[in-house]
Amino acid sequence: MPRINLLPWREELRAKRKKDFMMAIVGAILVGGLLSYTGKLTVQGMTSAQNVRNNILRTKITELDQQIEEINELDAQKSRLIARMEIIDQLQRSRPEAVHLVDELVDALPEGVFLTEVSQLSTRIELKGSAQSSTRVSALMRNVDSSDWLNQPQLQVVQTVENGPNRDANFTIFAHQISINEDAEEFGR
Predict the structure, then answer these.
(1) How confident is the model over 139-147, as a mean pLDDT?
(2) Is the Cα dihedral 40, 42, 47, 49 positive or negative?
(3) In CATH terms, is domain 109-186 a member of 3.30.1360?
(4) What is the pTM of this model?
């Protein structure tokens, strides 16, 4: 006798296909979720690695900023030291000038002229004093003009005053002191 299969095979096939499709969807969702999670972990790892690199760069930048600040301070200190050295060098070169100035004033004073005050501002010298006559003041100015260390005499004031039986001339003269440096520059060192 022939056998006849009366089972609903089409429905079984449909159920099997439905079950296989559901398994494929669940598998696809699981694989998609796994890929998504792996992608998220990869991006987080890359972000944290970049943050570590950024922190290292910030630290190095801070160190370099401090070094730049130290270099600027050293440059400023160097400039101050160079300025001090130049001042000291200038003072060393001009040290004998005071001696020459006093010596030259003694040589330039004619007889009968007395200085009461000598003041100096840079290279400008102010001479105040009294003389027995105004001709002696003129002689002082000629001596100052012919001096090696003084020049450009300018008479500011001459006043004649009675000093007992004598008449004295009080005067103020301005002159320019010639420094050693000017002499060296004139002769080309």
Answers:
(1) 79
(2) positive
(3) yes
(4) 0.48
